[in-house]
Specification:
elongated; Neuraminidase; mainly beta; four-stranded antiparallel sheet; single chain; about 55% strand; Methylamine Dehydrogenase, Chain H; five-stranded antiparallel sheet; 1 helix
Length: about 325
């Protein structure tokens, strides 16, 4: 290369036995050198990025393609992936990252997740993981923080007026430091977990540390309850300012339980009946009949409800 190399990466392709060295030069050209003891060496110009600052590459067995992640000076990540006669490019839909210092990328052989590690000048190391079936997601919070960085306080996403108001799909375009924002609530069991995020609705665990966004879920905010049925982790209820919403298929579809009132607390009885606290009223939906009835009216705004043995516990605020 005629220009100084500012970043380089290497990997091996077992399908043909080639070693690959990819360099980013001072002129922002990305060039690949591939070689083997029996064939010798060849060189290709892959792309030119006017703002590229770092690269990292890997090979994936599931599709036989080579992948190159490119970080640019604006904090965005792009991917080039190719095999002989077929080269493609796209921008990962996560970012921008402020102050990218370095990146590293690899493929996890057990799940075929593509993993990108991003180091930034605020002391954070963040993981992005993706594959063709689940899209791109980001670790929350960052994996590691080096040194002291003051926490950043953000505005809370607005509550919807109805279930037809902003959903996870529309809020996922939030232009913040990450797509999902902070985690507001967690529920589930050892098999399946659910997380309510600040800007992108509810997410469902896939195992192995991976999470999938549920794009048609209702939106909640700080203090809104999210609870899974102890007898069936595919049955989940969310309370918010517009009412209570439930799914019985692990979050693929959501239906209203009650509407027109802010539901501040929910929990399940041992028989699967649902307890909901809205204002000064506590309601119960019978598991067998589905009938909703008021079982208690207090003088307070109820903010928490729990079941223990044969007792129901309430917490209220004037």
């Amino acid at each position: 290369m005629s220009n100084p190399v500012q970043s380089a990466t290497g990997y091996f392709t077992p399908s043909d036995g080639f070693r690959h060295a990819v360099g980013l030069d001072g002129g922002c050209a990305v060039r690949e050198t591939f070689y083997s003891p029996s064939v010798g060496q060849e060189n290709d110009l892959l792309a030119v990025y006017s703002t590229a600052i770092g690269i990292s590459g890997f090979f994936t067995d599931d599709d036989g393609r080579q992948h190159l992640i490119v970080a640019d000076a604006n904090g965005y990540l792009s991917e080039i992936h190719w095999k002989p006669g077929d080269i493609r490019w796209y921008e990962l839909p996560i970012g921008p990252f402020s102050g990218v210092v370095s990146i590293s990328a690899f493929c996890a052989p057990d799940s075929n997740y593509r993993i990108v590690i991003v180091a930034t000048d605020d002391g954070n190391i963040t993981e992005i993981f993706y594959n063709p079936s689940i899209g791109s997601h980001i670790s929350q919070p960052p994996l590691t923080q080096y040194g002291f960085v003051p926490p950043a306080f953000e505005e809370i996403a607005p509550q919807p007026a109805t279930i037809g108001a902003p959903t996870a799909a529309s809020l996922s375009a939030y232009a913040g430091p990450s797509t999902a924002g902070r985690t507001l609530a967690l529920t589930g069991d050892v098999v399946k977990q659910y997380a309510l995020s600040e800007h992108a609705g509810i997410w469902r665990s896939l195992g192995g540390g991976a999470w999938q966004q549920l794009p048609d879920s209702a939106i909640g905010g700080w203090g809104d309850p999210l609870v899974a049925d102890p007898a069936n982790s595919s049955h989940v209820v969310l309370g918010n300012q517009a009412g209570a919403w439930e799914t019985v298929d692990g979050g693929d579809n959501w239906q209203p339980v009650v509407t027109g009132q802010a539901v501040a607390a929910v929990c399940f009885e041992t028989d699967g009946s649902l307890i909901m606290a809205a204002g000064a009223n506590v309601s119960r939906r019978d598991r067998t009949t589905g009938e909703v009835s008021t079982v208690l009216t207090t003088g307070d705004q109820n903010t928490a409800v729990a079941i223990g043995g044969s007792y129901t516990y309430l917490e209220g605020a004037q």
